[in-house]
Amino acid sequence: MSHLTDTKKDASYLVMGNEAIVRGAIEAGVNVASGYPGTPSSEIIESLSRVASERNLYVEWSVNEKVALEVAAAASFAQLRSLCAMKQNGVNVASDFLLHLVGSGTRGGFVLVTCDDPGALSSVNEGESRYFSRLMEIPLLEPGNFQEAKDMTKWAFELSEELKQIVVVRSVTRMSHASGNIRYGELPDIERKAEFKYSGFIFDPEEGVVISAPVDWKHQQQQAKVKRAMEIFENCPFNTYEGPDKPELLLITSSACYLYSKEAVNVLGIEDRVGILKLGTTWPLPPKLLAKNLSRTQKIMIVEEVLPFLEENVKILAAEMAAEIGVKTFYGKKDGTIPMTNELNPDLVISGLSKILGMEYVPVSAEYDQLAKLSAFVGAPARDQVFCPGCPHRASFLSIHNALELDGRKGFVCGDIGCYSMAVRPTGFETLKTLHSMGSGMGVASGFGKLGQFGMDQPILAVCGDSTFYHAVIPALVNAVHNKANITLVVLDNSGTAMTGFQPHPGLDYNVMGDEVPCIDVAKICSAIGARVEITDPFDLKGTREMLNNLIEDSNGVKVLIMRKACALSPQRKNKKDFEMRVDETICLGEECGCNRFCTRIFRCPGLVWNEKKKKAEIDQVICAGCGVCADICPQHAIVKEEVA
Asked: Which residue segments constitute the domains of the chain, with CATH numbers given?
């Protein structure tokens, strides 16, 4: 049994923030959960899947975030409680349906958990999801610690059912992936029966049809729900104030920034000078609560990640209440007190507080600071991002690079999000020339592929992963085939959603709960759409390069090359070597080879290292995955592979 389903009330556990969210959903009696993998949100669906049979849940990884939201919405319409989880990028994908959903309203409690990534620690942007709440006019909750992550998630389901509206719970990386002690509540013993009622009057929210029309009336209802949420938020226990009754400075903050703010005030020893208003309900803001706390002082500092969402909304309220509370001086992102980009931390908050309060703060001694700076020059060598040992992408991009060089017409590759995004760097031979959202490589390539009438004769390739193919590439492929774009799509099929932890996708024969399900074959889909389809093993460098050149030279519409090899870290290949690798030092010529150390300087597999003393290449047996590809790139055949018995 998982600790997440412990039935003992007040049991205490050290849990990750995402697990706290999961426990809150279980305590709320969630029935259905869906999502699409994306760090830092992935553990939510994975954790729920592990207790699915025990708690009679239905859990799925959907093909993309829009479909995930639609799946969870169906459960709500059938009077069940549902949760949908995604990272900040996914809210953009889901926003089309979300805009309609907030118009139609919901029935059973429905919570959207979005996990943002300030600093883009595992993303290619640090996009804000909070603005969707204001744009869509739906309540936004932000837990300020791990206990709140559990308790607030549970309450979000109750709030959703009271409002008949989806409720957003926003986490951030440092909340989702850090850990803290929490106390569990009771688990419900409720059996809900799914039933979709649709025979009532069209305006009946419980038994009428579920649509967002008539728009004017529905929009009025939507805004009435926001006003009701505002009233509820006035007395919400997740909004708290701590500090003197009349502070010199008021900090207004939320989410993980509350922890940074609290630590900063403690480090500076200014608890008697600074008050902290922690808001768990960040949209809509409760005006009476804000008026009470803004009246405490003339100076207000707002601490948040990433954009000034909270700052803007507080300032609007302050302007509206100026006659009541007076004119205030605000500090935050707009005036540069807090950085406008990247993660915050206690030191950044301390810096802002010190400037406002005229304090001097030295975080470390001058001697320590000098030693820290010196260590940057004598410490570990700088390392670029590289593909893992035995990664099929390294071989794939080497073949793509060589094929385009051999073709000689300045061909290029359009890419998108995944491990293979690193192919913009030397690890992928700087092959990718465009990089945007999931599926955009194919969409952009489709556009390039129609520019022949304007004189473009460069070969155009797109790359995508197998999970990305199902997520967003299929519509772009349909578009390219239908419009006769002259392009080549390379599907890097490594048998799972590798970048986020090998979550299953429709190309596999099992789902997140371990059930056997039909495998939807990439090659058959592409063939059915009308593309020419070929399949290669990327570790076959010669055959793959020849096939690529053949496809590039074929000017008859869309071609698809599926490079199929499981990820080196996947369950299929992890800790399993096909070959034992070694370098024959009697053959290796080192720097005298004429290849300019291609193996360790260009190919750059971490399993291949340069022995500075011997002036020879050698295999790092600890991390070598035994794929055997390096044996094919050595011009002297000094790298030897021997099959594992």
From this structure: 3-233 (3.40.50.970), 240-357 (3.40.50.920), 392-564 (3.40.50.970), 579-643 (3.30.70.20)
